[in-house]
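Hi V.,

You were right to ask for the full record rather than a summary. Here it is.
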Amino acid sequence: MVSSLQEAQEAIASRDAVITVQGETIATLRGQVEVLDESLKTALANIEKQQYQLEQYVKRLRGHTSERYCPDQILFDPLLLQSLPSPAAVEETGEDPTADEPMPRRHKKRTPHGRLPIPDHLERVVIELDIDESERICPRTGEPMVVIGYEESEKLEYLPCRLFVNLYRRPKYASPDRLKGNDVGVVTAPMPDHPIPKCKADCGLIANVVVSKFTDHQPFYRQDGIFERESVRIARSTLDGWALSAAEAILPLGEELKKAVLDTEVLFTDDSVIPLLEHGRGKTRKARLWVYVRGDPQPPLTAYDFTLDRCKGRPLEYLENYQGHVHADAYSGYEELFTKDGLDEVGCWCHARRGFDEALTSRPREASEILAMIRRIYDFERTFRDLRAEVRHEQRQTTVRPVVNAIFKRVEDMHPTILPAEPLRKALGYVLNQRDALRRFLEDGRLEADNNTAENAIRPLALGRKNWLFVGSERGGRAAALYLGLIQSCKACNVNPWAYFDDIFRRIMSHPVHRLRELLPDQWRPLERDSRGLILHS
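Predicted structure:
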């Protein structure tokens, strides 16, 4: 009896031991499953991130660069179709604030048909084409035929670069009795003003060199080849010296341009890389070119500032005493700038939408929803473009503000549901961090919804970099900033850059300092000159 009881107890103990081992094994296996599950999630997240990066590289290499978005494209995807009735555009009242608003129609620019229109201001060279004398006799009467009119046909013609020499011949006058000890001396007319002393190039040629490089993006070695086709050899180092010396002559005009640009309550700013050659190393380093565009009043004068780096102190130095609204991107270097009293940051919705455009491949439904709402902002803004600032402000309150509020509400709801590693999370974070700046354009009709004005002003620099590649020195960088600012201002004022530089090069040396504002493109009026370049009327 006792042995049977002992055997039963041993069997129970053995069973309990087996159960304990099995329980520990199950717990271990569960732990391993959890670890593998976390590893799988991490691996999938890394794969998704790398896939996103690969898609962005391929898009930049081979895809289209435009970020234009059409809401109709989501109709081709049944998943994206579900995002249309999303409650994101519904405010707390439960109604769509823009449902009854008709979507503004976009009018496509039409290309004019017909023959090429020839401007009336161009010089007309008359070329007479007449029939032979024998054909001017009437075959029936034998009498000379009379002219009853002319058949005229206009054809636009072109002549290559025309180089000529200005020979300044100045009579020298002396007293008749100079040989008898008269100390009157020789009297002659002074030479016209010139920005570069003893230079062999006249102002028109220097103006052409500057405009060819900074407007037409022709580096000096190409200009050298153009002149050589006209049998004139001008070394590129000589062309470079002319441009640098002329820039130093008009340097006070650059300071006046800066004052005029900052004389506004609305400003646009951006920056871009400009490679700077480091002498002795044969390499380039990254310098910066900052653009500042006057927003109001019109026209938008533009100034550039060349710096050796991108530190946050550069915009602080340039905008030291400025008060007003500044359109800018979310570059961290501006953070200290916007801590100043009297200076407000205006955000850029184009930068905000860029993140959602990049997230379309990973989160098409959510990204398309926000893109469609941002599109509505720009549809309304397009219809307000020609309105006065006061009317524009009023219209925004009833049309644009509800859409902006709906965007932020949807972004706040969506943000916690997206993993931190996803591209969409970055786009949502940008909008939330820039909340106040992105709303600020609703406070004043003079403000814009984006910073495209500055973005467009920086494009000539990007075109130039692809052609002349770099600046050779800090002196050259500052000259490039001065020329680019004046040229962009000329374009905004519909002024011919060559005519502008040709005139100011002739006037800058003797123009009163307190009247330099008259020489900026928005107030510039050319002086009438004769064929010798001398002023006829002031």
